[in-house]
């Protein structure tokens, strides 16, 4: 059995990965080794009756004994360790959830329901680095790849509604702490059935207070939103917005004739589901029924939600989709702008298809390839 080293298995993405690997019984096919940057020698996870001792995630000689390394440890670890391992001649598969290597020439961004052919070609060509994509990009492609596959997309704008989880585990906790402070401060007014305007004044005073808890986000998110994600690029975009065009085109293998994709990425008070509103410019007038058909026939996780109030509020929300692999697409309609303009809305779990699932599946693909 192939030796697979897993690093960062206790963090948020790593924990979701472990959960999925247990659910799918993935451990039966591998000899797992669990690495830690801080707890080497201590007890690690128990898998099928065996408790694994944690190995030192900075010990290159141990890492080099593996056939595959799967890291959810974050970008800094990748920057520190990956070049050293490669310099020392380790030629195993490096599968990574962090963004560090994504745009490298010799790395493939993995989303196998969308780019399995590119992944297979990479394996045949001896490419060794496979990296999960940005969450909004992966979730957009899981929803809309059917339209790209048909060659119907001229350009897309995506306005995002991104969950706290995308910013990290501490941010999820901070969001709920913020909600608690808002609720606690308004409690007496609510108990006294005060008017909405009085409650509103209380809420805004809470979130504007210099003492309000904003250590992680740098601004209130509860009862508000933050229209900025990641750092600034030179052209006025944020890096999250830049990833839309660069990663999507790389995943789809469009080196030339890139499809323009742009939009505004916004953090909202959802816990772990990213949502996106798309405007899609089609390159010809295509009947809505054909569009629907192309979307749903692309993969087994995407499905349509009827463009009605009842279906939408019940089925096209983070509340419904959280902790599932579902990719609902709804609010689908031709726009007043013209027959070639399509509006759509999609929701997806940022920790599953947005992070852990593509790398979990890549591990299986790499194992199949190794035979
Ligand atoms: N950058 C994303 C976000 C998550 O902040 O929501 C990771 O792809």
UniProtKB/TrEMBL annotation:
Positions with a binding annotation for substrate: 162, 267
Pathway: Amino-acid biosynthesis; L-lysine biosynthesis via DAP pathway; (S)-tetrahydrodipicolinate from L-aspartate: step 2/4; Amino-acid biosynthesis; L-methionine biosynthesis via de novo pathway; L-homoserine from L-aspartate: step 2/3; Amino-acid biosynthesis; L-threonine biosynthesis; L-threonine from L-aspartate: step 2/5
Residues reported in the UniProt entry to bind phosphate: 102
InterPro entries from the UniProt entry: Asp-semialdehyde_DH_CS, Asp_ADH_gamma-type, Asp_semialdehyde_DH, NAD(P)-bd_dom_sf, Semialdehyde_DH_NAD-bd, Semialdhyde_DH_dimer_dom
Positions annotated to bind NADP(+): 10-13, 73, 165-166, 350
Quaternary structure and partners: Homodimer.
NCBIfam families: asd_gamma (TIGR01745), PRK06598.1 (NF005144)
The name this protein goes by in its record: Aspartate-semialdehyde dehydrogenase
Gene name linked to the record: asd
């Amino acid at each position: 059995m192939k030796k697979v080293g897993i690093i960062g298995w206790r963090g948020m993405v790593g924990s979701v990965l472990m959960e999925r690997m247990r659910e799918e019984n993935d451990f039966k096919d591998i000899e797992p080794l669990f690495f830690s940057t801080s707890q080497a020698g201590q007890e690690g996870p128990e898998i099928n009756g065996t408790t694994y001792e944690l190995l030192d995630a900075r010990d290159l000689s141990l890492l080099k004994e593996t056939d595959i390394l799967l890291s959810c440890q974050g970008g800094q670890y990748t920057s520190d360790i990956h070049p050293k391992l490669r310099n020392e001649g380790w030629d195993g598969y490096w599968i990574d959830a962090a963004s560090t290597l994504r745009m490298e020439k010799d790395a493939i961004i993995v989303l196998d329901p969308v780019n399995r052919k590119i992944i297979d070609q990479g394996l045949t060509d001896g490419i060794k680095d496979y990296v999960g994509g940005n969450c909004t990009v992966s979730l957009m492609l899981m929803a809309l790849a059917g339209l790209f596959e048909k060659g119907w997309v001229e350009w897309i704008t995506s306005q995002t509604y991104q969950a706290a989880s995308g910013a990290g585990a501490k941010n999820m906790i901070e969001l709920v702490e913020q909600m608690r402070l808002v609720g606690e401060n308004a409690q007496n007014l609510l108990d006294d059935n005060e008017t909405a305007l009085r409650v509103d004044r209380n809420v805004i005073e809470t979130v504007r207070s210099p003492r309000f808890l904003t250590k992680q986000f740098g601004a209130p998110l509860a009862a508000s939103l933050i229209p900025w994600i990641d750092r600034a690029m030179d052209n006025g975009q944020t890096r999250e917005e830049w990833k839309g065009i660069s990663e999507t085109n790389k995943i789809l293998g469009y080196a030339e004739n890139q499809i323009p994709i742009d939009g505004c990425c916004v953090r909202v008070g959802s816990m772990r589901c990213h949502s996106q509103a798309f405007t899609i410019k089609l390159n010809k007038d295509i009947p809505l029924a054909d569009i629907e058909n192309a979307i749903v026939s692309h993969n087994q996780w995407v499905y349509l939600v009827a463009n009605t109030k009842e279906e939408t509020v019940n089925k096209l929300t983070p509340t419904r989709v959280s902790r599932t692999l579902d990719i609902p697409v709804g609010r689908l309609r031709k726009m007043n702008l013209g027959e070639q303009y399509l509006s759509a809305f999609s929701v997806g779990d940022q920790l599953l298809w947005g992070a852990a699932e593509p790398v979990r599946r890549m591990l299986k693909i790499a194992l199949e390839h190794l035979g």
